Amino acid sequence: MNKTVNINLANSLFHIDDTAYDKLRRYLESVKRSFAGTAGSDEIIADIEARIAELFLEKMENERQVITQKEVDDVINIMGQPEDYMIDEDIFEDQPKSSSNTGGTTTRVKKLYRDIDQKYIGGVCSGLEHYLGFDALWIRLIFLLLGVFTGFGIIAYILLWILVPEAASTSQKLDMTGKAVNISNIERKVKEGFDDVADKVKNVDYEKVGSKVKSGSKTFFDTVGDIIMFLFKVFGKFIGILLIIIGAATLIGLFIGLFTVGIIDLVHFPGVDFYDIINTTGAPVWAVSLLCFFAIGIPFFFLLYLGLKILVTNLKSIGNIAKFSLLGLWLISVGILIALGVRQAAAHAFTGTTTINEEYYAADDIDTLKVRMQSTENIDYDNRFTFDNLQMAYDDDGNAVLYTKDIRFDVKKSVDSVVRLKIRKDATGSSFEEARERSAGIDYGYALVGKELVLNDYLITSTENKMRDQEVRSTLYIPEGMYINFDDTVNGNIGRSTKNDRDYYRSDIVDYLWLMGSDGELKCQNCPMDSFDDDDGNGKIIINEDGIDININDRNEKGKIIINEDGIDIDVEDNGESFKMKLDENGVEIKAEDDY
Q1: Strand 459-462 relative to strand 400-404, pairing
Q2: Which residues pair with 12 in a beta bridge?
Q3: How is 74-96 classified by DSSP, letter by letter?
Q4: Res 423: pLDDT
Q5: Is the dihedral of CA 373, 378, 381, 384 positive or negative?
């Protein structure tokens, strides 16, 4: 049985069996021997080890996985053998001997990095040049034009500066250009860097370097970048704390509100007691509570985990198995809840109606009909639960009942001389027969007491009928020429189909006497007359129970006429002169301004 040893590559610890370890050790030693005495050999070896560590991490499913010889062989195949390449000063002209590992010309999928070697500000445009294949000059011009004319260019540049990482290592620089990260390309890139440094040393202006050192080692844009990155990190920490608070608070609330109440039933929470009245799916409350807990809680758990990842840089991963298990559980919970929701909605798919028609006396038997509504005192209104205009309460005997005060009635013209009352009771259900059964179970009271029609302002039904949009709509048909009076108790219960000649709102027609007209409109018999103004606002006529009041205001002429039980009173003002005439039981009295 192979033993397991630990190996550290690029500050990453891996568990590897001893056979694979021996092969990897011999490979790294041969690489080091190949680069012995080469300029930049330490950097080349470090980049090769970093690339090997990156390849191992890509192949590992979890951090405890043991690296076997298969993974080592795959990595060596990608990186290539040292003897496959010409490791000398002429590496840029010579081609690798092995055609199977010519990583120098093999292209890969490019990754977006900021090119800090060719930067002006943050290296965004030079990085986009490698990624998109466009010259950086044109990209800079586009950002400049968008920044000047729209401001979007500046915002986009800053966001890319913050979000896109810089190509710091040799592997990242090769990924940025789309070249394979193997031994040959790593050496090429490192030697290119040394050649650039050598050229710069040969052509350096030491006076400028000295002045630059005196003025500071960082450019202005580097300083601005550091400030932006610092603020971004502070903002990120704040976001992490906020995500932790939101996620934790939601999970705690879900546990208390759904898990303990719905499943264990430790607390009597208003609403759970009425679950059976609302529910039509047949699913028990504990099952629905669990599904809701998973459907809502799992996203907020990942929100909490994201906040912890932002704050704790070395936080261990929960593992792919746990992640995909939670994702599958969430998808199953959401799918079941959607199916239950569709089934719940289907319970309201059909509307059933039960109609009651009552005929009373002929119009000759009564001249005025009064309409009144009555309430009940047999319901405990303090302990109730409302859902979709229906309420659950308890009667005096302690029995649960469903009721609503959403009652409406309309007044229309009868086709003959008979007073009729049509009561329509509606309810919904998953089938027409079920809905009609529920509508027949609605208890609604009405009675004709002398010349007064008394209607209940509520309906009651059994809790067995469940909450299924139960409602009552009534229509009172009265003959033409019959008077009708509405009591204050009907205020708010009169329907919109009731028409009147004053265009009063339905709640404003109480306390007045109305006559049913031939056109089906109610004609008011004792309503106060409205005020009338002319188009220019110079005159006004008021007719009410106090008499007739006429006011005239035309330029410099003013007049007022009052006609009431005391007689006629006329005041006239013309060009600053006032006259007054009064006609009453004592005769006529006329006065000029000088007589006042």
Answers
A1: antiparallel
A2: 9
A3: HHHHHH--GGGS--STTTTTSPP
A4: 93
A5: negative
Which residue blocks in 347-390 are alpha helix, DSSP H?
Answer: none
Which residue's structure tokens are 């198995």?
Answer: 321
Estimate to the nearest angstrom the gap between the alpha carbon of 558 and the chain centroid: 63
| pLDDT at position 112 | 85
Supply the pTM of this predicted model: 0.46
Residue with token string 């979890």:
62
528 with 517: CB under 8 angstroms? Answer: no
Alpha carbons 439 and 432: distance in angstroms, whole number: 11
CB atoms within 10 A of CB 155: 12
- Cα angle at 422 between 421 and 425, to 5 degrees? 135
Cα gap 228→158, rounded to integer Å:
9
List the structure tokens of 511.
């306390």
Q: Are 24 and 7 in contact (CB under 8 A)?
A: yes
Q: Given its phi and psi angles, is residue 250 left (phi above 0), alpha (psi -120 to 50 degrees) or beta? A: alpha
Q: Which residue type occupies 123?
A: G
Give strand pairing partners of 536.
none
Q: Per the structure block, which two tokens stand in for 93? A: 């002209």
Distance from C-alpha of 187 to C-alpha of 171, rounded to nearest angstrom? 11
Q: What long-range pairs does 99-104 form, CB within 8 A, spacing at least 24?
A: 101/182, 101/184, 102/184, 103/179, 103/180, 103/181, 103/182, 103/183, 103/184, 103/185, 104/179, 104/180, 104/184, 104/185, 104/188
**32: which 2 tokens?**
């080091």
Instruction: Please give the single-letter amino acid code of residue 550.
Output: I
Q: What is the C-alpha to C-alpha distance for residues 524 and 516, in angstroms, rounded to an integer?
A: 9
CB 76 within 8 A of CB 27: yes
pLDDT < 50: residue spans in the chain: 86-106, 197, 201, 204, 206, 209, 213-214, 216-217, 263-272, 531-532, 595-596
Cα separations in angstroms, 491 against 97, 131, 154, 457 = 100, 73, 63, 11
Report the pLDDT value the prediction gives residue 411, as an integer from 0 to 100. Answer: 93
Nearest in space to 291 (alpha carbons), one of 337, 323, 343, 339: 337
User: What is the spatial distance between Cα 526 and Cα 513, in angstroms, rounded to a whole number?
Assistant: 6
Identify the helix (H) or strand (E) that includes residue 53: helix 41-59
Q: Can you tell me whether residue 296 is helix, strand or coil?
A: helix
The pair of three-digit structure tokens given for residue 345, joined into one six-digit string: 């909605």
Residue pair 207/223 in contact (Cβ under 8 Å)? The answer is: no
Residue 586 burial by Cβ neighbours in a 10 Å radius (0-12, 13-18, 19+)? exposed
Quote the CA–CA distance of 56 and 75 in Å, as a whole number. Answer: 8
Task: Give the span between the Cα atoms of 184 and 195, in whole angstroms.
Answer: 16
Check if the beta carbon of residue 125 is closer than 8 Å to that of residue 143.
yes
